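User: Hey, quick favor. My workstation is busy. Could you predict this chain's structure for me?
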Amino acid sequence: MYIADLHIHSRYSRATSRDLTPEQLDFQARKKGIRLLGTGDFTHPAWREELKEKLIPAEDGLYRLREDCVLSPEAGAEEERTRFVVSGEISSIYKQDGKVRKVHSLILLPGLEEAEKLSARLEAIGNIHSDGRPILGLSCHDLLEIMLETCPEGMFIPAHIWTPHFSMFGALSGFDRAEECFGELTPYIHAVETGLSSDPPMNWQLSALDRFQLISNSDAHSPAKLGREANLLSGDLSYYGLKQAMETGEGLDGTIEFFPEEGKYHFDGHRKCHICLSPAEAEAQGGICPVCQKRLTMGVSHRIAQLADRPEGFVPEKAKPFESLVPLLEVIAASTGRSAAGKKVREEYETMIRKLGTEFAILREVPIEDIKRECGYLTAEGIRRLREGKVERLPGFDGEYGAVRLFTPDEIESPEGQMSMSGLFETETDSEAGNRTAPGCEKHEREQSGEENFSAKALAGEPDKRADRPADFLSLLNEKQREAAELPSSCLAVIAGPGTGKTGTLTARIKCLIEKRRVKPSEITAVTFTNQAAGELRERLKRELANKRGQSLIQTGTFHSICLKMLEAAGEKADLADPLELSALAEEILEEESKPLRPTEFLRRVSRKKTELALAQEMSEKTGEKEENSFQKAFDRYRTAMEAQGWLDFDDLLIRTVSLLRENCPAIRRFCSHFRYLLVDEFQDISPLQYALIREWNKEGRELFVIGDPDQAIYGFRGSDAECFKRLLQDIPETKVIALQENYRSTEPIVKAACSVISHNPGGERTLAAKAGSGDPVRVVKAGGRRSEGIFTAREINRMIGGIDMLDAQERGAVLEKGPRSFSDIAVLCRTNRQAEEMEECLRTEGIPYIVTGRGTFLEADTVREAEGFFALLTEAGEGMEETAFKRTVQFLNRRIGGEKLLQLLEKYRPMAGKKPADLLKAWMGDRDLKEDEPLARLASMAMFHKTMKDFLFTLFWGREGDLKRCGKKRYAADAVSLMTLHASKGLEFPAVIIPGMRKGSLPLETEQAEEERRLFYVGMTRAREELILVTSGEPSPFLGELPEVEIQNEELAGTPEARARQMSLFDFFPSGEMPSA
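Assistant: No problem, here it is.
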C-alpha cells in the first residue's frame, strides 16, 4: 500500500509558498511518507519547463526527481523516492441557466507531452500565464470535452466538490446534480474530490455519489500542508494503475481525512462578525447573520443536508474505509501548548522523523510506547487520542479553519494529573517576563490560517483574499495602522476616520503588546462604550491571540462595568437603579414640580449637573449657576430620593470611583495595576467625567492609547465632550498623534462628498484616501414634499431590488449591470425617531420588509413601561433580585395593575417564564386587553430578536441605540431594509444608504448645534459603501450646499411627467395626501 496526494500547487499559483519547488516537494513528501504526488499547475509554462528540466521518467506515466536535484539523498533508497504524476487545477467561471457558476476541476495526465498539448488548446481560450491555477470562461462540460479530444487518457475530477464558492455542488455557485454540470459527458466523470470540510460519512448521505470514487487530496499551498488529506492505494504504481483505481475503485483502499470540522467551510457562518452556526441554528436565523443582517455563507454540512436522500450514519455496501488524522506538527503543538510554527515544535518534529520514521508511520503505525519513550507522555498521549478519535472539534466556517483539540490547558499544565512544582511556585519579575516567551506566544505562522488576517483591508472590515500571510502580522497593515499598533508611547492618540480600521487597529495594538513586546495581559485594560462592543472585542482577541490563557487576563469592559468591579474590590455596595426605576422617579418629581419636561430630558440635565458638581474644583468653583431655581429644586429632590433609597445611577458609579481614586483608597489603587497599559475605544464619545476617570486610571500607568474620530462625536446631548482630543493634547503635551486616512469602505465620490461637508467644521480640510475605488456620484433628489420623500424612498428601494419598469432600466443601465440589491443591502437613515416612524408608514404601504434599529418614542408609553416592570419582576424574582429593587417594582405595578390582579398574573406567567419573549408579550397583550396597543405591538416585534426575556430586558435597559431592533411586521423577515436614526447607524455600514429629510430645520435640527449636526450627517454619509442618495424637499438643508458639485448628481422629481409608464405602486391607489392607517 502507498499514499498518494494528487492535488497540490506550485509557487506559480496565487497565495502559495515560494518553497513549492520540485526539490522541496520531493523532500517533504519523503519525510511524510507520501509515495505519489501530483505536480500541480501543469498549465503554467514556467512550471512546466521546470518540471521538464528536473524530472525524469520512472514507471509508466510517472516521474521522479533527477538524482542531482535530490535533497538529502541518503534518506531512503532510490526505488523509494517520491513519484510524480502530472496534475493541475483549472477554475471555470461562466454563466449557465441564469446563474454564475464557479467550479474548480482537477486534471491528471499521463505525461508532460500531453500537458503541453492540452495547455496549447487552453491558451487559445484564456490566459494561462498569470496563475498556476488559470481562470477560464469555459463551462465544465466544454473543458471536459476539450480534454477528451486532446488527451482521451486524461482523468477529469471535480475538485473539493462542496466548497461554497468554487465547486460543483457549492452552495453559492454550483449545481445540485453532476448531470447539470457535465450533461451527456457525465459518464466520463469517475471520481470526485470531497474536500477538507467533508468526510466520507457525510458524502454517503447522497445516493447520487455511489457511482463515483470518493478521493481526498491536500490542495496544498505549501510543502508543510502536503498529505493533510490523501489516498491509500495498493494497485500498480503507474499512471494506468492510478487510473484504474480512480475509475473502478480497484486498488483504492481508502482515504486519509482531515476531521471535517477543521475545514474552512464546515458550518454556516459570517467570518467578519465571528458568527459560526450549525445548519439548524442557521435555519433558525433564516440564513442571515444575527450581527450584521447580511447573508451567512452556507457551510458544507448544511449544503449536504440540503441534497441528502439518506440519514446520517448510513453506510453504503461498497464504502471504502478512511482514517481521520491531524498533521504531526499540529499534534506536537496541541500536546505542548505551543505554536505549530514555533522553533521548539519544529525541533521535536525533526527528532521524531529521524528516530521513528515518516510522519504517516508515526501517526498511524509506530507503537505508542515507542513514541512515549522517545518524545514523552504528552505527545504519545496526543497521538493515541488521535488514533482513537478522542478529540474536541471546533467547526470552521466562512473561510475560518476549524480546530481539533487533544488536551485541555489544565492537562497540558499537569500531565498525567501531576501538578508541576514550577507551576505551583512560579512568579516572575517584569524583566523576566520581557525576556521569556510564554507557551503559545512564539512567532506565529499558519498558512491559510483560521485566524483573521491582519491586513489593512481586514482591519477596516473588508475580507482579505490572500490565503497565506507572513509570520509578522504587522507587515500586512498599512503604514499608519502599523505605526499605531507598535509605536511605544506614554500617550498615543489615533485619529481613525470612518472605514479606516479602528477596531482592528485597537486589536492589533493589544496583540502587539502581548506577542511582540511581551506585556503581561493582566496589565492591559481595554475600555469600550457598550457591553456588546466589549464582548466582540473579547471574542476577537480570543481568535487573534496565540496565548489563549493570556487573553482571559486582559480586562475588557465598559466604563461602568469596570467601575462596578472597582467598587466591589473596595467593599462598596452598589445598588444600581435600572432605567425603569429612574424614569418613574423622574416622572413623579416632574409632576409634583409641574416641570414641562420629558423624563428622559430631565435625567440628561441631572447628569450634566452631577458632572459639573463632581468636577467643580478643577473646572472652577462655580457650579450650576446657569440653572433656574425651579430645576435646582427638582434636582435636589432627585438626589434626596436616590440617597434615601440607597440607589446609584450611572453617573454616581463613575463619580464614586473617581472620588475613591483621588482619596488614594488602597484597595482601589491596587486595582490600578490593570491600567498600566490602558486603551480606550471611541474616545470622541467620552464625557468630562469619563475623561477624569481615564486620567486617574493612567496616573500610575505606562502607556495610554486612545482611538476615535473627533469628526464622529455625535453624543453631545448625552454629555460627551467633542473637544476631548484637544484637551488630552493640552494636559499631556508629549502625546503622539497618528491619523488613519485610508478608507476601505466607501467609493471615491462618497468619501470626497463626506470630506467636503465635514471640512466646513473647524479644523481645516479633511482628506481620506478612498481605497474602495471609483463609483457612482452621490445622488441628491428633490421631492415635492415630506410625503413625497417617503414615497420616493420606497419606490427607489423597489427599483434597487429589481422591481423597476423598462424606462427605468434604460435610464439606469449602469446600476442594472451590477445586478439587483437585496433588501438587507439597503439602509434608510433618519434624523429623528419621529421621522423614522413616518418612513415606516411608506415602507409598510409599499410592502417593503424592514427592521427598525433604535429606541423609538414608543418605549416611553405607560403600557410599555408596565410590561417591562412586570417581566423584570417575573424574571428576577426567583434569582435573588435585590430587596429594595423588588419592592420598588412591586409598588409601581400595584399602582398600575392592582395588587390582587398582579398576583394572579405572576402565578399564571411563572410557569411560562422560559418561553420566547415575543410569545410572552403576545400573551400579555391579550391578558391586559391591549391587543390593539401600538407601542406594545412594537415592543413585541423588538422582542423577536431575543431568545429569552432576561436577555431582552437587559438589552432594553442597558443597550445603546444600535443594540435595539424590531421588525416592521408581525413576523421576522430575514431579508429586510434597515430603518434607523443617524445616531443608531454609528458603527454600521451598508452597500446602499438613503438619507431622507435633508431639509432646513430637519437636518440640521434648529435646536441643536450646527457643528454636531454636521458631524452627524458625516456619520450617516460614511455608512454607505457603494451608493448614497440624499432626499430633500422644500427649502434644502444648508449641508447640501457644502457638497462638491463634481461628485453629485442632482435630480428633480417634480419635473417627472405623471403620464410616464412605470410599475404600479400601492401608493397609486390613494389620493395625494392620504395614507392608510397602520
